[in-house]
Each structure stands twice: as C-alpha cells, then as structure tokens.
Amino acid sequence: MTLQQRVSIQTQEFDLAAELTALRAGDLRVGAVCSFLGTVRDRNHGSEANAVQSLELEHYPGMTEQSIEAMIDAAHARFDIYAARVIHRVGVLQAGDPIVLVAVSSAHRGESFQACEFLMDYLKTQAPFWKKEQTAEGAHWVDARVSDDAALARWGIQANNAARSE
Amino acid sequence: MKIRLRYFASLREALETGSEVFECDATTIGQLRDALAARGGAYGQVLAPGRSVRTALNQTLVDDAALLTEDCEVAFFPPVTGG
C-alpha cells in the first residue's frame, strides 16, 4: 500500500471522484468512504449589491499544511479510520467553485461520518486561511462565526477563534 | 531578541506590510504584542488589548503566555475563516 499525500493546498481545481478512488485504492478493508465538499456561495441576501462576485483565499504557507496534517493525526487518534485526504484551494475563486474537500475511509460508516465532520469543524476554526469577498459594493474580509467555535466544542476542543476567552 | 514577524489578512492590510524583523526585550507573546501596539498608529489600533487577534509561534497556534526564543517566527492574524 503506497502512502498517499494527505494534504494539498493549491490554486487548481480537484477531481473529487479521482480523489475518492485514490483514497481507497488497494485497501480492501475499506467499507465506507465519507466526503465533504465545500463550495463558494453567491451570498445574495436578496440584494444584487451583496452578491459575491469572487472570493479570495489567503493562507499562511507552511503552517497551513502542517496544521491540517496535525488535525488528520488527531482524527486517526479519535476514530477508527484508515485514511484521510484534505484539499483546500487558495487564490481567487468564483461563486459555485469548489473550495475544500475532506474525505475519510474506514471499515464502517459511523467512523467515517464522524471523522469527516470532526475534520471540517477543526479546519474551520484552526487552519490559517482568510476569505475576502468581492461584491459590487466593494471587498470585505469575512467574519469568523461563533457557531463554528460551538461546532468544535462539541468534540471537546476549545476553538478560541470567533469567541475569544481573553 | 530578534523576532521575525508575519502579518496576514486584514492585519496585513492595516499595517501595510506582511513581514518585518523586530528587536525587543519582550519574553512572551503578550509582551511582544504590547510592544508593537505601543508604536501607535495602525499598530496601536489593530493590536490593542481586546482586539481579536490570534498568534502563531514558529507556525503553531499559541496564547499570550507563550515564550519567545531568539530568531523565532511570530505571526499575528485575525480569527481564521477557511473551509
């Protein structure tokens, strides 16, 4: 069984089907593969002026890969999973574009479902990315959400992202 | 000691720089932040106490108590919004 690359930070699109095939290739213990795909929303609150024309994703090269690798290690420690793959795009994306892929393999579905959600909750509040939306009214940085901190708290981890305990 | 600083996102825009080298007597992240805020101007605004800023030391998330080392890399940035 060859060791696949677990984390990719890239500007290019990815092929979800090819990634899922690669994730479980050569491992007949796998009975379940769970994946999550995050995409850019046209966040139109009923006004054309607020529609997202494009989204720019900034990141901290070096730390980004390292932090997600550590999250995958944490997922392996918590859940009985075989492999995990995270791809996160950076650069300028358009509404409708895929941003992030999280995929996990295991023997049975319970572990994969949970590990996939765990990785997304972890990534949302701890991975060093920042989104900037371009609308007709101008560009603005997206605010972190307290609800994402709450999501990570369900796994017993304090996010300290949107909700700071200072 | 010598600190290699990195700034990202809205902080980077406000400070008009993504990186700089800083010489200071600070021993912790919190003291370093205060020393930078004391410069006033944009630094005083974005790094003021109470402003939501996260920190990484040598590419690992840390809190204000973390200890600095000579030539370490410290990054200041807003709450993250990836995924």
SS class of chain B: alpha+beta
CATH architect. name of chain A: Alpha-Beta Complex
Rg of chain B computed from alpha carbons, rounded to a whole number of angstroms? 12 Å
The H-level CATH homologous superfamily of chain B, spelled out, is Beta-grasp domain
The overall pLDDT of chain A, averaged over residues, is 94
β-strand percent of chain B reads 25-35%
- Summed up, the domain count of chain B is 1
How are the strands ordered across the major sheet of chain B?
A: 2-1-5-3-4
Total count of helical runs of at least 4 residues of chain A = 4
Give an account of the 3D structure.
The complex is a heterodimer of chains A (166) and B (83). By secondary structure, chain A is an alpha+beta fold. Helix content of chain A is 31%, strand content 31%. In chain A, the strands form 2 sheets. In chain A, strands 1-4-6-2 form a 4-stranded mixed β-sheet, with helices on both faces. Chain A has a 4-stranded antiparallel β-sheet with strand order 5-3-7-8, with no helix packed on it. In chain A, a hairpin with a 2-residue loop joins β7 and β8. Chain A is globular, with a radius of gyration of 17 Å. The N and C termini of chain A lie far apart (47 Å). The longest helix of chain B has 9 residues, at 29-37. Chain B has a single domain (2-77), classed as Ubiquitin-like (UB roll), CATH 3.10.20. Chain B is 27% helix and 29% strand. Chain B has helices spanning 9-15, 29-37, 41-46, and strands at residues 2-7, 19-23, 54-57, 60-62, 72-77. In chain B, strands 2-1-5-3-4 form a 5-stranded mixed β-sheet. Chain B is an alpha+beta fold.
